[in-house]
Amino acid sequence: MTRVVLVDDQAVVRAGFRVLIEEHPDLEVVGEASSGPDAVAVVRRTHPDVVCMDVRMPGGDGLAATRQIVADRGEADLPAVLVVTTFDLDEYVFGALEAGASGFVLKDCDPAELADAIRALARGEAMVDRSVTRRVVAEFARRRPAPEPDGSASVLTPRETDIVRLLAQGMSNAEIAAALVVEPSTVKSHLGRAMTKLGTRDRLQTVVWAYRTGLARP
Predict the structure, then answer these.
(1) Where are the CATH 3.40.50.2300 domain residues in the chain?
(2) What is the pLDDT of residues 14-69, one digit of tens each?
(3) Is residue 109 over pLDDT 90?
(4) What fold, for 2-131?
(5) Per-residue model confidence as pLDDT tens digits over 133-145
(6) Cβ distance 120 to 126 under 8 Å?
(7) Whole-angstrom distance, CA of residue 75 vs CA of residue 70
(8) Does the structural domain 148-212 have CATH classification 1.10.10.10?
């Protein structure tokens, strides 16, 4: 069972998300919060797998809350923060990515997409709405100065490089596997090794790295 905390300042939005999420027998809402500070307290009390986080809340935005939740978890993979927002190029989204969020979906996404995103984060993967993956991450990377070349890309094998480049295009493991004519398990293994070499926290941070270093381009 995947345990979920909902964070949104509008009670009606939380109620709607709860109904949509709990239609799935493998998902359970274990807490709600209406502000960033409340979210941190609820997460500490309930120990969820995934936090669905709004970022624009009068009682305290989700950026500081995301940063604190990520800091609290230390080296653990969970809880993961899924940013749920109205705007696909909202400044807050870039801040959330920088704060350590592992996923990003729009509030008007299909209910099944929300459930799939929650499951992906619970598995330790990252999830960005397919319709805006490249725009959001490329813009996020563009607004931060690129690091000095440090040879980090050279530590990747040709296969790992291909996989990271396709990942940056918004492909899933299955789609990458189909493109490279290999098994999805092979993609997962190569990607895991690439992330270890690069020191990236998750798939999303690996995509950001790819854009910032020029391996992937908008």
Answers:
(1) 2-131
(2) 999 999 999 999 999 999 999 999 999 999 999 999 999 998 888 778 889 999 99
(3) no
(4) Rossmann fold (3.40.50)
(5) 556 666 666 666 5
(6) yes
(7) 9
(8) yes
| Region(s) of the chain under CATH 1.10.10.10 | 148-212
Six-digit token string for 75: 């080296």
Long-range contacts of 182-191 (CB under 8 A, 24+ apart): 187/163, 190/157, 190/159, 190/160, 190/163, 191/160, 191/163, 191/164, 191/167
The 3-class secondary structure across the chain, one letter per residue, is CEEEEEECCCHHHHHHHHHHHCCCCCEEEEEEECCHHHHHHHHHHHCCCEEEECCCCCCCCHHHHHHHHHHHHCCCCCCEEEEEECCCCCHHHHHHHHHCCCEEEECCCCHHHHHHHHHHHHCCCCEECCCCHHHHHHHHHHCCCCCCCCCHHHHCCHHHHHHHHHHCCCCCHHHHHHHHCCCHHHHHHHHHHHHHHHCCCCHHHHHHHHHHCCCCCC
Burial class (CB in 10 A: 0-12, 13-18, 19+), 217: exposed
